[in-house]
Specification:
Blueprint lengths: L1 E5 L2 E4 L4 E8 L6 E8 L6 E7 L5 E3 L7 E6 L4 E6 L8 E9 L5 H6 L5 E2 L3 E6 L1
């Protein structure tokens, strides 16, 4: 299983970016993908996750209302639409996948437990 993130870059305060996370390889039909970020000198922070089999989502309070996670199963891609970006959103953004379906998968992923991580993509927000 491989995850590839894309869509990072540099924007000014108030701008928007859409990150993509594409899964490939020997995957199961059901999985949960989460987005995380890690700013320099901090721990990795969970942002949002989505179950691909029912499109249910969960968000961290810090991004609720500004970030939106969505899934395109045909493309095996999960997106993170980020609006109203702030300098404190500057970080390396990662996606991670937890394979298999379950009642608690979103809670597990938001706890930082995943089977695979992507390589990360840098987001820089300037003031």
């Amino acid at each position: 299983v491989q995850l590839v993130e894309s869509g990072g870059g540099s924007v000014q305060t108030g701008g928007s970016l859409r990150l993509s996370c594409t899964i490939s390889g020997n995957t199961v039909n059901e999985y949960t993908i989460g987005w995380f970020r890690q700013a320099r000198g901090t721990e990795r922070e969970p942002l949002a996750c989505i179950n691909n089999w029912d499109d249910s989502t969960r968000y961290a309070g810090s991004v609720q209302g500004r970030f939106t996670i969505s899934s395109d199963n045909a493309k095996k891609t999960v997106y993170l639409q980020m609006n109203s970006l702030k300098p404190e959103d500057t970080a390396v953004y990662y996606c991670g996948v937890l394979l298999g379906a379950g009642l608690q998968t979103k809670a597990v992923v938001m706890g930082g437990v995943v089977d695979r991580w992507g390589q990360g993509t840098q987001v820089t927000v300037s003031s």
